[in-house]
Recover the amino acids of this structure.
């Protein structure tokens, strides 16, 4: 059964204090790993898709990387507006596009 | 370009009642997936619709049913509501037409269902 585990569950940073969020996964065949940002009471907002080990993608202060067993979301010099829950999801190498999500990491960036 | 829209935003029901939630996919998308997100948890897959048929289903009871219309919009129906059905219900749309790699799911704002 697919499993996605995110750590830490919650993370508190000072503005400008860089850190990384972890997403470890076990799937029979990875077709894609997705990162989403979710603000309280809102729907998840798409950030990145990673397909193969060694792949990296960047967007503003965020950089996502992928290995064969885990993905990292690096946050460089975060700002208070980066505060949100970050969700990781995997898509198995089957014919359909359903996603299996982790529980998320709640990030709070203080000014 | 309108994104995924859902209605209503909030809904309050009592145990045993039935509820219908609605979703319009992003322009150009033909596949709709529904997820349930309990407080403090990640979204859990309910089912996916493509070409007006249920293509895949997660581990949810038959009380959860759906429909997709010819314009690709979709409904989620839940019968005999339980307290545990209280959650944020998310609709996501995607399109396989751009290739199997490019089928990122885009989510709507969700419907918050409270069962009393």
């Amino acid at each position: 059964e697919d499993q996605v585990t995110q750590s830490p569950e919650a993370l508190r940073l000072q503005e400008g204090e860089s850190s990384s969020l972890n997403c470890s996964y076990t799937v029979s065949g990875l077709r894609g790993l997705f990162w989403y940002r979710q603000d309280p009471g809102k729907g998840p907002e798409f950030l990145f898709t990673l397909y193969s080990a060694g792949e990296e993608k960047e967007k503003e202060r965020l950089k996502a990387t992928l290995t064969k067993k885990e993905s990292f979301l690096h946050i460089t010099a975060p700002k208070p507006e980066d505060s949100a829950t970050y969700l990781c999801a995997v898509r198995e190498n089957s014919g359909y596009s359903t996603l299996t999500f982790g529980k998320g990491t709640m990030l709070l960036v203080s000014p | 370009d309108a994104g995924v829209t859902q209605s209503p935003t909030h809904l309050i029901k009592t145990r045993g009642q039935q509820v219908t939630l609605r979703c319009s996919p992003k322009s150009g998308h033909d596949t709709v997936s529904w997820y349930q997100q309990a407080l403090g948890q990640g979204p859990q897959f309910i089912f996916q619709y493509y070409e007006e048929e249920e293509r895949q289903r997660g581990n949810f009871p038959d009380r959860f049913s759906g429909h997709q219309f010819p314009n690709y919009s979709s409904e989620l129906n839940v019968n005999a509501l339980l307290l545990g059905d209280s959650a944020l219900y998310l609709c996501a749309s995607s399109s396989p037409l751009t290739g199997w790699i490019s089928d990122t799911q885009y989510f709507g704002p969700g419907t918050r269902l409270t069962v009393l």
